[in-house]
Amino acid sequence: MVAVDPRGVARSEPVECLDGREMDAYTRTDVTPDDTKETNTLVTAYRRFAEGCGADAPELLRHVSTVEAARDMDIVRAALGDKKLNYVGASYGTFLGATYAGLFPQRAGRLVLDGAMDPSLPARRLNLEQTEGFDTAFTAFAKDCVRQGDCPLGGRGTAPGQVGKNLKAFFERLDARPIPTGDADGRRLTESLATMGVIAAMYDEGAWEQLREALTAAMKDQDGAGLLVLSDSYYERDAKGEYSNLMFANAAVNCLDLPPAFDSPDEVRRALPDFEKASPVFGEGLAWASLNCAYWPVRATGEAQRIEARGAAPIVVVGTTRDPATPYRWAEALAGQLESARLLTYEGDGHTAYGRGSACIDSAINTYLLEGTPPTDGKRCS
Description:
signal; 5 strands; Rossmann fold; about 375 residues
C-alpha cells in the first residue's frame, strides 16, 4: 500500500498560513456577525488568513489544484510500474479519484470512492447541500440524545427541532459571554469554538456520547473543556498549541478548484435564508464560513463539471445515508455521472463507511480490491 500526501499537504511542501497563536485567534473569530463591526472583523480574519498563505508560498498556491494532484498520482503509478492505478479515496479523496478517472480512464484500475463529492456543483451549492448534510446528521444525534435520558438539550420525547433551538440558544449565550475551559493558554469557549466542537462530533456517531457529556458540562457547569477538546480535534491542534496544515491545505485546494461561493458580505446576507432553512442550527455560521475564498490571493483555475470517465473499469462509489460532510445525494449524483459506477450504500451515520464497523460494506469493498469483483450496483448495507 502506498499513501501520498498531495502537493501542499503535510510532507509534500505543506502550505502554511498562520502560526499557532494566530490560528487560535482565527478559530475564535465570530462567524455569525451581528453588526457591521463584527462583519468587518470576520472579513479581516479571512484576509489575514489568505495573506498568510500567499506570503508563505506564492508560487505553490497557484499549483495545488485537484487536477494537478491527479496528474501527480499518475506519475506515482508510473514510478511504481503499475499499468493501472488501484485507489481508495475518502471524502475529498473521492473528488481526487474521480478527477483521475476523468483524466486517465484507461489507466483507472479498481477505484473505491467513499463519502463521495459531486464535482458538478458550484461552490455555493456545494456549501448549501453540505449544510443540509450537517442538519441531517444533527437530527440523528438529537433523536439519540433525548432517547438516552440525560440529554442537556431536552428530555425524553423532545422533538429534534426543539433540541436544535435549545442548542442555538446556548450558542447565542456563548456569543455574548464565553465560558472558561481550564485551557493552559487561557482560551475560553466561544460560540465559534463550541459550534465546531458539535460539528466535529457529527463525523462519527461514536463521538455522540462524548458530545453529550461535553454539552452537559458546558450548559450546566459552565465548563467548556469538553467542547474545546472536540473543536481542537477538528482543527488538529495539539497540546503544544500547534496546528497541522489541514485547514491551510483545505482552503488552498478548495479556493483554487472552484470560484468563490460568495464575493462579498452582502451576497452572504442575501443567501442566509436559504442556509438557515437548510439548517436552523448551523446555517448562519456555515454561510459566513463560505466567504473565505472571496479574499484568496490567487484566482481559481477550476470549475464545476460532470465527470463521466468513459471506458474506465468499474468504480465503486460509496455513500452513507446520514453522512454530515458529504451528503448521500452526492454519492447518487457521482454514481449517475461516472459511466462505470457501482453505487454502494451504507444506511447509517457518520462520515464515510469503509472500515467503520459494517462487515457488509468492508466485505464488498475488500472483495473488489482483492479479487476484482465489484458489488452489484445499488447494493445496500446497514
